[in-house]
From TrEMBL:
This is Integral membrane protein. Residues 96-125 are annotated as: Disordered. It comes from the Bacteria. It comes from Streptantibioticus parmotrematis.
Length: 261
């Protein structure tokens, strides 16, 4: 065993998909409500394997312990294991000591094509979601780079009530408008579990993450939002609060899967 991650409606490797069912589909798993734990390791010959367990509590304790720099022997019980899948769905930079270099088992040994990590070498859905992950993780750093006087894209309404965007022109304006419209539509048409997630943030606020077809939003309910789209490689659009954003963020928080209980 080299590492482990949770695959639940509230916490899953976003590189795998925009929501929990999509991430499960990559592994050929049914999106059960309680979720799974994924244990990535090697067998005695060095082959990569992903063990899928229903014991999410055990995996959560192991991950939290490792994050604190302490050791933890993660050994899921046989009754909790639902699958042993060939390959790894995520990139792992370490290898087991005393074992051959990590390699995929043959299809004969593994029973099918091995799992492989999504391609993140070029801009696309996987890279866009990883970018959103980084902004969420380094919120203070990204927020400090925004000049409140000139960098914001502001969601507005004109006198007719039509949606608009101030502060950016051309493709950027249409991209941000589409994202805000689609995110707002989640209030009437709830998305799949995990498409919108909410977690604790400083000052009593909530940290929000929303994803959709071709876009990601990272936001704080008491502050601004950042928008990334597949159509604009590497671009991060900061959206100012204005009159509309607070209501949108509140609505998203109300329907989000909460990741901190």
């Amino acid at each position: 065993m080299l590492t482990a991650v949770l695959l639940t409606p509230g916490q899953f490797p976003s590189v795998l998909g925009d929501d929990y069912p999509a991430a499960c589909a990559v592994l050929g798993l049914r999106p059960v409500a309680g979720g799974y734990g994924l244990v990535l390791g090697q067998d005695g010959l060095g082959a990569r394997w992903t063990v899928v367990t229903l014991d999410t509590a055990l995996v959560a304790v192991a991950v939290a312990t490792w994050d604190c720099g302490m050791e933890y022997d993660l050994s899921p019980g046989e009754r909790s294991i639902v699958a042993s899948l060939p390959g790894w769905p995520l990139a792992v930079a370490v290898a087991g000591p005393g074992l051959p270099a990590p390699h995929d088992p043959s299809e004969r040994d593994g029973g099918g094509p091995p799992l492989t990590p999504p391609d993140t070498s070029v801009w696309g859905p996987a890279q866009r979601r990883l970018g959103a992950d980084e902004i969420a993780l380094q919120w203070k750093s990204w927020r400090s780079q925004v000049d409140d006087e000139k960098d914001f894209v502001k969601a507005t309404r004109d006198d007719t009530g039509a949606e608009g965007v101030e502060g950016v022109r051309g493709p950027g304006a249409s991209a941000v408008r589409r994202v805000l419209d689609e995110a707002r539509a989640y209030g009437e048409h709830p998305p799949p579990p995990g498409r919108v997630r909410s977690s604790f943030a400083e000052g009593g606020a909530r940290a929000l993450r929303a994803d959709g077809p071709g876009w990601s939003i990272v936001a704080r309910t008491d502050d601004i939002a950042f928008v990334l789209t597949d159509d604009e490689p590497g671009e991060v659009r900061p959206v100012g609060r204005g009159p509309e954003l607070p209501g949108l963020l509140a609505a998203l928080d109300a329907l989000a899967v909460r990741t901190d209980g």
